Amino acid sequence: MSLLNHFNENFYQAIELCQSTRINEDILFKWQETGLFPASSFVIENKLQVNSYLGITEHTELIEYYPRGYLAWAQILIKHSVESSTQAYMYFGNMYQQILTQLVHGMPEVLVASFTEDLEESIQSSWQYFLVGKYGAICSTGKIEEIVAVDLFKYVISFLTEDFSLDILDEETRKVLHIALRELNNSVALDNPLLPKQLIRDRYIERLIKQYDLSVK
Fold first, then answer.
1. Helix or strand or coil: residue 45?
2. Residue 217 CB: number of other CB atoms within 10 A?
3. Where are the beta strands (DSSP E) in 132-201?
4. 176, 155 contact by CB (below 8 A)
5. Distance of alpha carbon 141 from the chain centroid
6. What is the pTM of this model?
7. Is residue 63 packed enough to be buried (19+ CB in 10 Å), middle (13-18) or exposed (0-12)?
8. Can you tell me the distance from the alpha carbon of 22 to that of 66, in angstroms, rounded to the nearest whole number?
């Protein structure tokens, strides 16, 4: 599959995103300028040479791509008539905490307490990364559910393995790590040979499988 096919099948161009949300591009750009909506996660620069009877002309074309999960965020902005970055952050934070409550259910209390100790600061950091397009590049679809899962389960893996320093894991820890491994694997974008390597897979998923003889289930 060519890189253009990959993006066209898995992402929206700006015009497609606007058509799906029934807004014009001016509104999208205004959202971005005022801190309501993320920047594109990928930009392709096409250098075109057009050869015809009239001669040769050269053009440069920039195409911005947004993950398809951003459609859900656009619909939230429209549904609630969000007009300020403060409002947008409030909805993002509320969704983050609701999703987190579901994901940590049944996990060790000491782990949950550690992750949520500076939760507001963590959410603010994730919001900033969300706005610059980071999660759209590393997540499967860019949905907030995936953002929370990536934040949480990276932490779970590091916490329970003590940053991969432990040699042996007990059975209960392995059970939690299997959950973390599965959730992280489902939330992180697949590797594409034409794009930079997905480091989360290397640093967390593949390393966990190899070092502790775990597999994605």
1. strand
2. 8
3. none
4. no
5. 7
6. 0.91
7. middle
8. 16
C-alpha dist (Å) from residue 87 to 10, 76, 100, 124, 192: 29, 11, 20, 13, 36
For the stretch 35-67, pLDDT in tens is 999 999 999 888 878 888 888 988 888 899 999
- Give CA–CA dist 75/36, Å, rounded: 12
Structure tokens at 215: 């597999």
Find the helix or strand (DSSP H, E) in which 12 lies.
strand 11-13
Within 10 angstroms of residue 49's Cβ, the number of other Cβ atoms is: 8
Six-digit token string for 111: 């782990």
Sorted by sequence, the CB contacts under 8 Å of residue 165 that are 6+ apart come out as none
E strands along 20-153, which residues? 42-52, 55-67
- 83-109 pLDDT per residue, tens: 999 999 999 999 999 999 999 999 999
Residue found under tokens 């007990």: 170
109 is written with which tokens? 């209390």
Residue 159 token pair = 């916490």
Q: How many CB atoms lie within 10 A of CB 42?
A: 17
Structure tokens at 124: 């603010």
CB 6, CB 192: distance < 8 Å = yes
